[in-house]
Amino acid sequence: MAETAVDHAVRWFGLRFASERTEREYREWRIATATPFARIGYIGSMPSWCLLLVSVVVLDWESVPTAGPPIFGWILALAVLTALTFPGAARPWVMPLAAVANCAAGFLVIWLMFDVLASDLPAQSRAGLMTAGMLIVMFFGFAIFRIPPLLAMAAVTPYTIFASLHLYEDHQDGNLDDVEAGGLAAAQWIAYLGCLLVYIVIEIVNRRSFCKDQIIRVQQAELQRSRDAIRRYVPPKVAERIVRGDTVSIEEPVRRRITVLFADLVNFTILADRVEAEVLTTVVNEYMTTMSEIVADLHGTVTEFAGDGLLALFGAPDELDPVDQAVAAVRAAKSMQRRIPSLNEGWLRLGVGEPLAMRVGINTGVLSVGSFGSRGRMTYTAIGIQANIAARIQSQCEPGGILLSDTCWHLVKDQVPCELRGEVECKGVHYPVRVHAPLTLTPVMS
């Protein structure tokens, strides 16, 4: 189902999508994008805890038995939590674990600063250090970890209340006056509300980023579908140029020396009258697919399908040396003929009464190559007398055979042994065209 503008409608001041499906997709997206932030948060906080542990050992040895084990255990816990951000199976638990970790860190910081490390300091200094440490942890909970809203509040609120209770106790014990206790408590809750506001802004921005990502994803999918559709209806090498925006090289017809291959199934018209349309469709599609793949593997381009016949060009749109294109065309023809028996095995099982045979004619010459047609529809092909010669040669070929024009033979004779098969009269040509049949292909030395 494609995304629409309705899918991205929001409510609750932009903090929730109206569509439940979109909301579920957003939550999955948020987990995927927030996991690296959780990992960074864990890794970034570990040096601070290590530094705190070293400071306790160096500066306050008496506190090591009390503070050392919890700090060291917390460093190990951070290492484990970092490792859990990597496996895909643990991904759904990354955000809940981040919330639990932030809550635990908040309580640990408050306890260390208030009851252990700063217990000998004046109440004002102790309360100030506790508040400062708590605010750092609070910032991680709301801004760094990208925890979902309710989880973030569930993580931060308990230790904020815990810190305020410590201030209240100090106030009740007379260690802090009204201004000091009230000021620090106000600072804690103002910071809480400020971080919550920042978090809300981040959440709204995240949802907008998600919408943009979804739009880009849909556009990319539509673009890929368009490209795939182009490749289905246009020769692959021509499609590549269209996708790249390089249409100039294929639009204007140019005169070029290329090699043309015509192939045709013998008695296909009779077959079409005998078999069901579905069987005929299967035969044609398998035949065209197989032959097109062979041509493409040898750097050729199939430009036209006409019933059971196909036209392939070697040397357009990608230019090739005349010898290379002619040899490639002959090799393609030989490979095509070798595939016919295996295709016939499947066709006979479909109910095709007799094995089919193919004829191939090849000619090399100068043709007009480019896009021909109307503004509404263009076809990339080659036209000219040399193409007609290739078609005529093919029509005079024996079933299962390959014939080359004399021009093509001169280009391949050093690599392809051939034998002369006489002459062919071609309409529009004032002289008979000598034709040759390839025997075997000599291996190409690399």
Are there runs of 5+ residues with pLDDT below 50, and where? 1-6, 441-446
Number of domains: 2
Structural class: alpha+beta
Overall shape: rod-shaped
Q: SSE order, as H and E?
A: EEHHHHHHHHEHHEEHEEHEHEE
Number of continuous helical runs: 13
Please report which band the strand proportion falls in: under 5%, 5-15%, 15-25%, 25-35%, 35-45% or over 45%: 15-25%
Walkthrough of the structure:
The protein is of the alpha+beta class. The chain folds into two domains: 6-224, no CATH class; 249-438, Alpha-Beta Plaits. The protein has helices at residues 20-59, 64-84, 94-116, 123-144, 149-172, 178-233, 236-244, 248-251, 268-274, 277-297, 322-350, 385-395, 406-412, and strands at residues 10-11, 16-17, 254-265, 300-306, 309-314, 358-373, 378-383, 402-405, 418-424, 433-438. Strands 3, 4, 5, 6, 7, 8, 9 and 10 form an eight-stranded mixed beta sheet that branches. Helix 6 runs antiparallel to helix 7 (236-244). Keywords: Membrane, Transmembrane, Transmembrane helix. Belongs to the adenylyl cyclase class-3 family. Pfam families: Guanylate_cyc. The chain crosses the membrane at residues 40-59, 71-90, 97-114, 126-145, 150-169, 181-202.
